[in-house]
Structures are given as structure tokens and as C-alpha cells.
Amino acid sequence: MDAFLLALPLVFQPNVLAVMALAAIFGLFVGSVPGLTATMATALLVPLTFFMDPVPAIAAMVTATAMAIFAGDIPGALLRVPGTPASAAYAAEAYAMTRKGLAERALGTSLVGSAIGGMFGTVVLVISAPQLAEVALQFTQFEYFWLACLGLSCAVFVSTASPVKGTVSLLIGLMMATVGIDITAGHPRYTFGIPDLLGGIAFIPAMIGMFAVAEILRNVVSTAPVEPPRLEHLFRVFQGLGGVFMRYWRGLVRGSVLGTAVGILPGAGGDIAAWVAYALSKKLSKEPKKFGTGHVEGIVDAGAANNAALSGAWVPALVFGIPGDSITAIVIGVLYVKGMNPGPTVFLQNPELIYGVFITFFLANIVLIPFGFAAIGLARHILRIPRSIVWPIVLLFSMVGAYAIDNSLFGIVVMLTVGVLAFLMEENGFPVAPAILGLVLGPMLEGNFMTAMIKADGNLLGFFERPIAAVLGVITLLLWATPLILVALRRARLRAAGERG
Fold first, then answer.
1. Cα distance between residue 128 and residue 83, in whole Å
2. 305 partner at 20 to 30 Å CA-CA among 205, 244, 296, 409?
């Protein structure tokens, strides 16, 4: 408590609050531009933090990241072009709500859900950081392999198409993830002699292509008149949210808990948390058939999960110096520069600074609501611009985002190529969500499998020898076997009914 009281005057200073306000505006802008991710927002702030004290420096990064994670939902809901990877999980759902005249409900749910999830993750960060980090440290390559398998299994649930088409889409994503240098042998795979492919297919340009380019092509080739979505009543953003969260409070809690837990696992992050939360929401929903048609339930779960994961990722970063995601990997470097060496001793040597960081987390999630509301108010003017003007601007920003990843024109080539592929897939009933999930989790799956096989000396039973790995493995295998068992039981019942008839 003494450290908390000492931290209060460190945060509530005019210069710190001004830095947080400017970082909030910066984060909202970066997050709303497709391709300019929350990680990029954090990276762009690093040079500026060298001239700041520790508390305002970390406060700027925390605030900008929280704003960017939510801001990615705005173009996702209005244009079906997610601004950040964390928003991709439910961009189609939010856009479907916009097409039904429920843009205010979609954005309001995402905004408030993000703030609640972020607050929940922060409470967990403050109270249970050491205990939860110890659990994450017990994960080895065996556990991460099964975790990746569980994540890929979500492709069946996030897909609104047939399981077969969802599986094909997943395999396309996994195939794209294998492009580049082989992890173990160091041999080029599927590069066709193109040097730029040695580094693999970058996820951000591919994601932009699958959503932005595919959506642009869809609008270009469509001959039917399209009624532009409307967002006319700004104050309806908060209207009816009490009933939404009362009805789906279980999903809100589930998304917050799941997001925090996934965020704590090193290397996971908010994008994986959002995908898993959306998939689990559909699986456990009483109305699964409504998913994909503009159903708010999935947005409640996933919106809370992505910001909760942001807070959860700081648990291993602060307590053990292990980055929970790419954002905290950048922040750890800044902490070292500021003399706040991450690890257990930081709570003893600089407790007031650590509690100052905790307080900035609470403030960032509180100011997310008014700043996010203002951003929605500005974004609604996009809908009044003719589509013939909007889509070229979206394509331009998308090209900037794809180029900025590696400062290479090849990122734009990847974006356009994958965009055409995604357009052709959707035109033939193949969903793109499983492909994105395969591209995200493919390297994690392959890398951990190969390393685990080397550790186990080629013995597959090694994947079940550790308690946590055994539990995850059994759950995964049961999940895979359940559809086959249900099909066999259904055929057996039909056969028995035919014999009786």
C-alpha cells in the first residue's frame, strides 16, 4: 500500500497526463489504419521515450497500445477492413451488424467490452502476477505444440462454411506458413528462387490482403447497387449496451479470463486471444447459427479478450523479463534503458515505479471510453464519402501498411496476391478466417513440434509425459475425435431406425 501511495503523485502530474492524452490520439490513429499495428505504435514511440522519465515513458506505450487495439475495430466494423490483427477475428461479424444498421451497437459493444477486459486483465496483473507467471514458465515446446493444435482446431468453429471447406482454408494458411527457410534444416522451401520469400510470407501484408484487397475486389466486381452503411446517431453507441452485457455477461467474463490467460503465455498475444475467444463463444452459444450474420455475442467475448491479453502479457514481462508478446518485447528494452530491470527484484528495488505502471493501466482503460467515443464520432464521416473515393484511399493506406512492415515493395506484392486468393476463396464459399489462423499459428506449430521431437529423440509419447502436456493433448485429441464419434453415432441410429422400419 505504501508503494501504491508513493506511485500516485508520480502518475497524476500534468506532464504525465498530457503525454497519455497525446499517446491516446496517436494510438487511435495508428490502430485505425490497416497494417499499422499496435506493435508498430509502440515501436514508433521508443525514440521519444528516451527523453522521458520512466513513468511517462511507459504510460505513453500502455495508452497508445490500448487505444490502437480498440481502434482496429473501427475500420473493421465500418469497412470490413480490420485495423489490427486482434480485430480480424470478428471484423466480418461487426461489418455484418453494420450492414443491418447496427454499427453503433457493434462499435459500442467493442469499445466498452475492450475497456472491461482491459480492466480485468489489469486487476489480474496487479494481484496475481507472480503466481500466474509461474504457471506460464512451466510451458515447454510440448505444451506449446498442443496449444497451437487447440488454436488451429478453432478454425472449425470460427468457420461459417462447411467443416470441409474450413479445413481446406486452414490447410492453405498452413501451406503459406511453410514458405521460407526450414526451421531445423535451414533449407529454402517453396521460395521458387525468389530471395524475398526466404523470410516467409509476412502475416500483416497477408492479413491486409485477405480483408482489404478482397473487400475492394468484391465491391469492384459487384454490379448490384449497395446501400452504404449508416452511423447517424452517435449517442446510440452506448444505447442498449446494458442489456447486451446483462444477456451475455458469461461471455464477457469468459473473454476477459481467456484473454488474460492467453496473454500470460509468452508469444501468444491479443490476436490469438481474440480468435480463440470468438471460436469458444460460437461453440458455447445457444444461437451458433447466428454467428456470421451480425450477432453481437461473439464481439462481446473477443472484444474483451484482446485488451485483457494486452494486460496479461505484462505478467511474464515484469516478473520474469520474458515478453508475453511483441509489444512487451519492445517495452522490456525500454525498461532496461530506464533502469527498471524486469524480474522479481524490480518489485523490491523500484516498487513505486511498478505501481505507477499499474495505475497507468487503469487510467488507459478508463480514458479508452471517451477517446474511443470521439474516434467513432470522427470515423462516422467516412460513411458519407462515396465508395468510389473511400476504397482507393483504403487501398492506399493498405499499401502503406504492407510496405512499412519491412520497408519493402515485396510486402505490397504479398498483399495483392493474397488478396486475390482470398477473393477467389470467398467467391467459392471458402472462408478466409481459418487461413489467417493457419498463417498465424503455423510457425508456432512447426517450430515447437520439431524442437519437441528433437528433445524426445523422435518418441511421440514424449508429448504426453509432462502433466500439462498430457492434459492439453488429451483435450485436443478428444476435440478432434468428437465430430467423428458423433457422425458414427448418427449413422448407427439411422441404420438401426432403417432396420426397425
1. 31
2. 205
Q: Which residues make beta-bridge pairs with 181?
A: 188
For residue 213, the 8-state DSSP code is: I
What percentage of the chain's residues is helix, strand, coil (to nearest 5)?
Answer: 80, 0, 20
> Which amino acid belongs to residue 274?
A
Q: Which three cell numbers stand for residue 4?
A: 501504491
Nearest to 92 by CA among 233, 278, 232: 278
CB 305 within 8 A of CB 277: yes
Of 318, 329, 269, 340, the closest CA to residue 57 belongs to 340
Neighbours of 147 (CB within 10 A): 25
Q: Which residues contact 152 (CB under 8 A, 6 or more apart)?
A: 170, 174, 437, 438, 441, 445
- On whether the CB atoms of residues 59 and 358 are closer than 8 A, the answer is no
- DSSP 8-state class, residue 97: H
Task: Quote the cell numbers at residue 235.
Answer: 449517442
CA–CA distance from 150 to each of 126, 157, 297, 461 (Å)?
Answer: 29, 11, 22, 18
More confident residue, 37 or 122: 122
Measured between alpha carbons, how far is 430 from 153 in angstroms, rounded to an integer? 17
Quote the pLDDT of residue 417. Answer: 92
Most confident of 179-193, 210-224, 256-270, 328-342: 179-193
- Residue type, position 402, single letter: A
In this structure, what DSSP letter does residue 33 have? S
Distance CA 273, CA 86 (A): 8
- pLDDT tens, position by position, 206-248: 877 887 788 788 877 765 555 555 555 666 777 777 888 888 8
- Cross-strand partners of 497: none
Q: How far from 164 is each of 160, 167, 168, 344, 377, CA to CA, in Å?
A: 11, 5, 6, 48, 41
Which set of grid coordinates corresponds to residue 363? Answer: 487510467
452 contacts 463 by C-beta, under 8 angstroms? yes
Q: Let me know: does 438 contact 172? Beta carbons within 8 Å.
A: yes
**SS3 letters across 374-389:** HHHHHHHHHHHCCHHH
- Euclidean distance between CA atoms 312 and 308, whole angstroms: 6
